[in-house]
Amino acid sequence: MKRCMLLAVVPKVELTPKTVTVMEGGDVKAVCSASGSPAPVIQWTLDMPSNQYEINSLETKINLTLSDLSPDDNGRVIVCSAENMVGQTEATLQLNILFPPKIQQLLGPERDHHWCIPFTVTGNPKPELLWYHKNELLQEQDYIRTMIHESTENEDHGCLQLVNPTHIHNGEYKLVAQNEYGGDEKTVTAQFIDPPNISPTDMGPDAVIIGMTKIPVIENPQYFRNSGSMLKADTCELLPR
């Protein structure tokens, strides 16, 4: 009498595809198959609304259909696992959802160590950010530049940092975010310092303004101070021959 021994084998999982790239609103189909002894139980593990996916189980494979994918699904990892009495094996599907930029918020200036105009922007691929001041493209330099403080799969949180801005930096700021799938823009008004208040009544009729400084014109000055001495304006010094 022959005795048969059943060889136990740890499950092996095959998942197709392993990474998928699709535009927002698109659909994805994936197939997970497994082998092993005894025959393993195959299942998908995903944290998504039930109306967004459909699972079709067959004998040695299980099909998954995802629909109406959104930016919130970008970077999501979905697990297919196979388990029998010997052990468990997993394979993963990663979603890369493409979508145009969206400026979630653009706030008024805040003062910390430097002045900062905070923003939050989403987009995949990461969008290019451009700033405009009074409809003129802002040329970023050391004293005025974009700073990203926190970056996730979908979002960038940062600010336009300004070091010691003056009244000439007041006005409307526009943030434009662009990638190959579209763009978005928002505006905010900034008031860093009140402009100088120079009233015409504060100046004499002969006063002039040089830069931001009011300088009165003095009629018939009698004396000029020079190197500690006083000389009349209409005096001449006779020099010996």
UniProtKB/TrEMBL annotation:
Organism: Goodea atripinnis
Gene3D superfamilies recorded: Immunoglobulins (2.60.40.10)
Matches recorded under Pfam families: I-set
PROSITE patterns: IG_LIKE
This protein's UniProt keywords: Disulfide bond, Signal
InterPro entries: Cell_Adh-Cytoskel_Orgn (IPR050958), Ig-like_dom (IPR007110), Ig-like_dom_sf (IPR036179), Ig-like_fold (IPR013783), Ig_I-set (IPR013098), Ig_sub (IPR003599), Ig_sub2 (IPR003598), NTRK (IPR020777)
Protein name as annotated: Ig-like domain-containing protein
Signal peptide region: none
Residues of the Ig-like domain: 11-96
